[in-house]
Amino acid sequence: MSFGRKTAVVGVGYSQISRELGLQARVLAVDAVKAAVADSGIDIQDIDGIYEYPGSTGEAAVDFQRLLGIESLSDFGDFAATGASALSAVIQAEMAVASGHCEVALVIRAITREWGQMSGQTQFPPAEGAAQYLLPYGAAGAVLPVMGMRKQRRKFEYGIREEDYGAIAVNARKWSAMNERAMLRDPITMDDYLSARYVAEPLRLLDCDYPGSGAVAVLITTEERAKDLKQKPVFIDASSHGTGSRPDWTFPDDLLFGGTRDSARKLWERSSVTVDDVDVAEIYDGFTHIAMSWVEALGFCGIGEFGDWVDGGKTIGPGGSLPMNTSGGQLAEGRLHGLGFLAEATQQLRGQLGERQVEGAQVAVVSNAFGPQSASLVLVTD
Asked: Looking at the domain assignment, is residue 274 inside a domain?
């Protein structure tokens, strides 16, 4: 589906990714932007749109204009909790460029380890609204009420085995071992997964992403401008948000999929390709449950059929029929809240990833977030 002009991802940049405490997210963000600008060959003064999912930077999009020394912006946006993590900002940037509202859009996502672990806080304000039914029972943050119970429900509904979740975690490490940027590169076995401690039974430690400090930046511009830049253009073929019915993280109508099926349905309706054309999938894996839900929602297998489809992990690992999360994802590269998946997919379609490169990759799907904040993209090379 087109909003007007054809858009392309033309620059990708990362800061360092680490477990260090006390780092400034704004500094990490600027490092990532400088890397993306160098990658693309765009003059930084040509950037006239800035979009971010703010996280822990403490800066608004216009603050980055000042930090980067950009003279003027045509458009900007901050998407915080109102959108699907970093892909909210990507989709807004895409639409701004496609409509002619700006010519070169910068998207930023920066996060620190401290920010990433806020869900573990033990002091809360007085409970109001839905929280009055959760906080008195210790159900706070994403882990217990949202993901532990969802995993339990999926196992009950579809007979999904612990080993099927383990296949996602084990393969994340197979991919991250080939990614020098990843924080977790040591391999794990299925026994390691099955013996990992529970954080909210049946949710295991190795079902959860790995908080760290880092930033990612991407640059989006028009097809016409992209042809004159340093990198092979990677085009945004389709994009979609989805909230699902009765959108809520804890009390939705659909506990297992949230807005993922909504987003996936609209994505394929808008795309010029089909699910069968996808060569590589960069699927949000804040928890293994989320990755499993996205695989089924996007139609790579039937609902409740992930266990048979993943074939002990062979399907999604190196050399598999659908290589998935080739950076190691948030489970192993580290939690960057979504924009890293787009950056990884872009580099896969450029053919730049060496040992972990998926040979001949021309179509990639990217997904981000869960519940009422689900979003997805299709990228193509032409």
From this structure: yes
Asked whether residue 128 is assigned to any structural domain, the reply reads: no
Domain co-membership, 157 together with 286: yes
* Whether residue 305 sits in one domain with residue 178: yes
Q: What is the CATH number of the domain that holds 370?
A: 3.40.47.10
* Exposure class string for 66-93: b at 16+ Cβ within 10 A, else e: eebebeebebbbbbeeebbbbbbbbbbb
- Whether the model pTM is above 0.70: yes
Question: Average pLDDT over the chain, rounded to whole?
Answer: 91
Domain boundaries, position 242: 143-208+237-381
Q: Report the pLDDT averaged over residues 330-338.
A: 91
Three-state secondary structure of 332-361: HCCCCCCHHHHHHHHHHHHCCCHHHCCCCC
- Specify whether 166 is located in the same domain as 290: yes
Place of tokens 């909790």: 81
Q: What's the pLDDT band for 291 if we cut at 50, 70, 90?
A: very high
Backbone angles phi, psi at 241, to 5 degrees: -100, 160
Asked if the model's pLDDT at residue 357 lies above 60, the reply is yes
Residue 76, φ and ψ in degrees, nearest 5? -160, 165
